[in-house]
């Protein structure tokens, strides 16, 4: 599903050039649950942004569902992104002016799904994350755990091939965090590919594979073989 | 998606009530000012356009040459209109048009009222589109004793009765039959009348005007369909030479009626300058309001950043976001436009009073809605474009990671906008105050004659016959110091000649000389000083009937040495100079000082009565008593000369007041924006304020820190506005021969005023932040 070859990302300011990722080779297969770990500033989020088609790499190849996307324009990336990827963020990023229902509906609107179908899908997903009784509430009226459940609902409502979760439990207490992780595991069990950036070892334990990043490079991989991974999927550089 | 965006916009408006209020009220005030000014601009630009086939209607005018300069004049010799109609088939219809009299006493069944009566030829109704309520426009001006009245006048005199066939008496001597009633004349008509008689009547009464050298009447013409006006004007250019006098230096021409309100007959701008100025001001105010919107929208960008980032992440395209934000600003503009319409409706009566117009908002007219549509779209696009592009270009990675900040670029942009707002406000205010000072200067300027405590009384034929008796009886009253009579009000004499000659005069020099007629006491009544010579002989005025008294300016033209006893040849008479008076303004002081010569008056139009100070009303009663004795059939028409003089500046005062209001609104709208920005700034700097307080900053120090930034902007705006204003006003002053020195002190005064307003505006927010408990602000952060 995702394959990177010698992926590099460099940030340039007027005086400094910082290498955020260097020569990352990574393959993620459909149905995998991959956790990316590492200290702050090691390039986890940069990698997640590139995988999420929010950013282009500076060098290297990146194949996403059979497409070489490293040189895709913003418009092409947007199209691919909205059809295939759902996002879950540490700070939930729900739109304060929209209700729970309207927040979840938003990706479907951008995909031009007809209203009747939207209603069915949103209600179904809200039921799945057990927040249907709060559908008319606004984000500020919900607890952190509830907000993240809404964010997950929004991420999965369009039935994406891939969910990218950036420290999804980072702002939650352990009980709520657990609940969110249960949801993600459940989604993975149902066949959705998940790539999660996390600082939490216990959250990472839920993944089928843990990738450690350090200074922009993959330094280790712990394959729990929930789904078989090709032996050369990760190269140590 | 549209409804989704609408919901977000609506909820944003509701949630941020303060900002919404500032945004909407700023835009509404700005748009209301613009709508009112544009209504006026539209009204002025469409003067005379209500006539059918208006592009075929022209004012007949001519160029007259003095001193080698061609001057475009509307006054025509009487025979011209008939002659050009006869000679040029391209001229389909032509009419004279003139006042028969400004104060003619119209009497019907004992009800008397002075009225302004105009005169025209039968072609008048074929040229102009003044629909009749009663009567036949083909025949209504045919009979010499006809009178056409307006609907307004008909209601006033006859109530609801049909006035056709009724007879009114004019000036107690002329019975006229009402043959038609016109609909009321639109306010944007250059030709305005309530009473109209056949020109034939004037012709009959003034047979002496039938010569080619007396220019007393206006004329209009309608040209045939398909006529090329340029070639017709070429023919008219030769008219005087071909048909009147081979040596003539006069040239007839036609000037479009659509332009007469806006331009001089020579094509030089007149009213159009004011129209352009007010149009610019309308746009200025709208831009200031738009800048507020842009400022507040971009300042609050951080609040919208999460929404933008998220939407981008889940698939919103750049174009979709631009559409969303443009739509949002259009929505706010539409809300503001509704308030603007209400405000315009509420303030229209005051605005009309200010502009001396009777503008009405015709809600069924396409024009009005086009203005509203144009203003709304312009505002929505100008105000919304930058924020839309700015917000839509946010990097979603930074936004979603929470590392986004508004950016230095946008801060600089906001500052630039505030500076531009204050440049406009400062320029407008300094210019307005300069115009106020100039108008005040002209109104209070010493024009060389003393017009305080003087009453002028209109003299009719009945009074004219007994003028000396009336004068003597008035003079004998203890309430009255002095009495004089004259042909003109002394500072509005537009009676000129250029055929005067004197010994040693350059034959190519043809100055335009003004000649008012006065009596022997004129100089005492107006306290006019003599430089040389003497006034007319009081005891034997007849002895001075061939004498003139001139002013300094004419004396200098005649000779560098003494001019006393020199002769001026004028209209086949030789006139001896017996005195030279100090220059005074015989025309309004918006014009240059004119050379003039005073002659003894036999046919006075005005009596001037200097009354004892503090006795104005008593004097009026005394004048009424004496005049009614000799003029029993006519009510007295009088006015205080200082009021009359002040009225000359009414138009200018209206302009000044409008400018003043426009400046005030520009400042209010600018300050609304400043207030919004200051509160945003205070919100953003809560943590900084907390830290500073913990470290020991006093409230005053904090307020200074806050106000410093804003004050800097006012300084920059003022420095930029000063040279702009100076050069603009110097251009404006070119039209005034008598002017004030540029009031540089206004720069400082306006700067201090704007600074104070800004500090007060910002001060509240600064004070609120500075007095907050630092623990709270740090905790909040």
TrEMBL record, chain A:
> Which first-to-last residue range defines the signal peptide?
none
Pfam assignment, any one: ABC_tran
InterPro entries found in the cross-reference section: AAA+_ATPase, ABC_transporter-like_ATP-bd, ABC_transporter-like_CS, MacB-like_ATP-bd, P-loop_NTPase
Name its species.
Answer: Labilibaculum manganireducens
Gene3D superfamilies recorded for this chain?
P-loop containing nucleotide triphosphate hydrolases (3.40.50.300)
Which family does the similarity line name? Belongs to the ABC transporter superfamily. Macrolide exporter (TC 3.A.1.122) family.
One GO MF annotation is: ATP binding
Q: What is this protein called?
A: Phosphonate ABC transporter ATP-binding protein
Per the record, its GO cellular-component terms are: membrane protein complex
Organism's domain of life?
Answer: Bacteria
Nucleotide-binding listed as a keyword: yes
TrEMBL record, chain B:
Which PROSITE patterns does the record cross-reference, listed alphabetically?
Answer: PROKAR_LIPOPROTEIN (PS51257)
Q: Which GO terms describe its cellular component?
A: plasma membrane
- A GO MF term: transmembrane transporter activity
* Mode of membrane association: Multi-pass membrane protein
UniProt KW keywords: Cell membrane, Membrane, Transmembrane, Transmembrane helix
Domain named ABC3 transporter permease C-terminal is located at: 280-396, 662-774
Quote the protein name from its UniProt record.
ABC transporter permease
Q: What is its main location?
A: membrane
Q: Which residues form the MacB-like periplasmic core domain?
A: 20-238, 426-584
What organism is listed for this UniProt entry? Labilibaculum manganireducens
């Amino acid at each position: 599903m995702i394959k990177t070859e010698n992926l590099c990302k460099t940030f340039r300011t007027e005086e400094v050039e910082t290498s955020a990722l260097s020569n990352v080779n990574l393959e993620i297969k459909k149905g995998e649950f991959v956790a990316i770990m590492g200290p702050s500033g090691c390039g986890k989020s940069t990698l997640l942004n590139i995988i999420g088609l929010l950013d282009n790499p500076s060098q290297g190849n990146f194949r996403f569902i059979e497409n070489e996307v490293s040189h895709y324009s913003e418009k092409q990336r947007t199209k691919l992104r909205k059809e295939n990827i759902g996002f879950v963020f540490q700070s939930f990023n729900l739109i304060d002016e929209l209700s729970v229902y309207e927040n979840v509906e938003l990706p479907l609107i951008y995909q031009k799904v007809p209203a009747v179908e939207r209603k069915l899908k949103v209600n179904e997903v809200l039921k799945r994350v057990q927040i249907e009784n709060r559908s008319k509430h606004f984000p500020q009226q919900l607890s952190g755990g509830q907000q993240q459940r809404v964010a997950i609902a929004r991420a999965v409502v369009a039935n994406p091939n891939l969910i990218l979760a950036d420290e999804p439990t980072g702002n939650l207490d352990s009980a709520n965090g657990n609940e969110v992780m249960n949801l993600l595991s459940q989604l993975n069990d149902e066949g959705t590919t998940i790539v999660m950036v996390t600082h939490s070892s216990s959250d990472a334990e839920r993944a089928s594979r843990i990738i450690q990043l350090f200074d922009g490079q993959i330094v280790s991989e712990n394959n729990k073989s929930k789904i078989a991974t090709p032996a050369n999927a990760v190269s140590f550089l | 998606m549209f409804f989704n965006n609408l919901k977000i916009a609506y909820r944003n408006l509701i949630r941020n009530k303060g900002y919404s209020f500032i945004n909407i009220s700023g835009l509404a005030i700005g748009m209301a000012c613009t709508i009112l000014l544009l209504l006026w601009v539209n009204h002025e630009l469409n003067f005379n356009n209500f006539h059918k086939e208006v592009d075929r209607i022209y004012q007949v005018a001519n160029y007259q040459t003095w001193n080698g300069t061609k001057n475009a004049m509307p006054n025509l010799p009487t025979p011209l209109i008939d002659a050009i109609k006869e000679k040029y088939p391209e001229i389909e219809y032509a009419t004279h048009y003139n006042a028969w009299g400004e104060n003619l006493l119209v009497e019907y069944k004992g009800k008397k009222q002075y009225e302004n009566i105009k005169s025209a030829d039968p072609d008048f109704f074929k040229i102009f589109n003044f629909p009749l309520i009663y009567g036949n426009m083909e025949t209504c001006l045919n009979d010499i004793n006809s009178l056409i009245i307006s609907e307004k006048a008909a209601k006033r005199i006859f109530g609801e009765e049909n006035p056709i066939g009724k007879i009114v008496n004019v000036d107690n001597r002329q019975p006229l039959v009402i043959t038609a009633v016109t609909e009321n004349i639109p306010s944007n008509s250059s030709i305005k009348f309530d009473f109209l008689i056949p020109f034939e009547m004037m012709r009959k009464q003034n047979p002496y005007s039938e010569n080619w050298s007396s220019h007393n009447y206006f004329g209009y013409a309608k040209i045939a369909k398909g006529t090329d006006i340029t070639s017709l004007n070429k023919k008219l250019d030769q008219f005087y030479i071909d048909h009147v006098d081979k040596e003539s230096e006069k040239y007839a021409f036609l000037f479009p009626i659509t332009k007469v309100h806006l331009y001089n007959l020579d094509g030089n701008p007149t009213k159009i300058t004011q129209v352009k100025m007010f149009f610019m001001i309308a746009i200025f105010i709208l831009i200031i309001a738009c800048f507020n919107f842009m400022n507040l929208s971009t300042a609050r960008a951080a609040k919208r950043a999460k929404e933008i980032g998220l939407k981008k992440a889940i698939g919103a395209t750049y174009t979709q976001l631009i559409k969303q934000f443009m739509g949002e600003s259009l929505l706010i503009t539409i809300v503001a436009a509704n308030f603007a319409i209400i405000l315009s409706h509420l303030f229209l009566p005051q605005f009309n009073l200010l502009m001396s117009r009777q503008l009405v908002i015709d809600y069924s007219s396409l024009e009005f809605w086009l203005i509203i549509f144009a203003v709304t779209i312009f505002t929505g696009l100008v105000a919304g474009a930058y924020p839309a592009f700015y917000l839509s270009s946010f990097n979603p990675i930074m936004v979603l990671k929470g590392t986004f900040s508004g950016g230095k670029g946008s801060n600089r942009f906001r500052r630039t906008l505030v500076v531009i707002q204050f440049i406009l406000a400062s320029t407008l205010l300094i210019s307005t105050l300069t115009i106020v000072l100039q108008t005040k200067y002209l109104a209070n300027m010493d024009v060389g004659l003393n017009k305080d405590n003087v009453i002028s009384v209109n003299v009719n034929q009945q009074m004219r016959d007994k003028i000396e008796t009336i004068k003597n009886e008035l003079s004998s009253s203890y309430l009255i110091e002095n009495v004089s009579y004259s042909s003109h009000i002394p500072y509005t004499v537009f009676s000129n000649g250029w055929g005067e000659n004197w010994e040693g005069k350059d034959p190519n020099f043809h100055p335009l000389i003004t000649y008012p007629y006065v009596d022997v006491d004129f100089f005492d009544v107006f306290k006019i000083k003599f430089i040389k010579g003497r006034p007319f002989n009081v005891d034997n005025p007849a002895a001075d009937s061939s004498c003139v008294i001139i002013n300094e300016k004419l004396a200098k033209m005649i000779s560098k040495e003494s001019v006393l006893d020199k002769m001026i040849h004028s209209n086949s008479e030789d006139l001896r100079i017996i005195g030279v008076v100090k220059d005074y303004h015989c025309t309004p002081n918006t014009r240059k000082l004119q050379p003039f010569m005073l002659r003894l008056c036999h046919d006075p139009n005005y009596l001037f009565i200097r009354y004892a100070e503090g006795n104005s009303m008593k004097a009026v009663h005394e004048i009424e008593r004496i005049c009614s004795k000799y003029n029993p059939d006519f009510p007295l028409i009088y006015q205080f000369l200082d009021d009359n003089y002040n009225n000359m500046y009414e138009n200018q005062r209206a302009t000044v007041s409008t400018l003043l209001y426009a400046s005030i609104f520009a400042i209010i709208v600018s300050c609304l924006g400043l207030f919004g920005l200051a509160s945003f700034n205070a919100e953003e700097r809560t943590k900084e304020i907390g830290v500073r307080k913990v470290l020991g900053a006093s409230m005053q120090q904090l307020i200074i820190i806050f106000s410093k930034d804003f004050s800097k902007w006012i300084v920059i705006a003022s420095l930029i506005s000063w040279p702009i204003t100076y050069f603009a006003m110097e251009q404006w002053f070119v039209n005034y021969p008598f002017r004030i020195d540029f009031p540089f002190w206004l720069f400082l005064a306006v700067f201090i005023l704007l600074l104070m307003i800004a500090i007060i505006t910002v001060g509240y927010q600064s004070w609120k932040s500075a007095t907050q408990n630092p623990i709270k602000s740090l905790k909040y952060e």
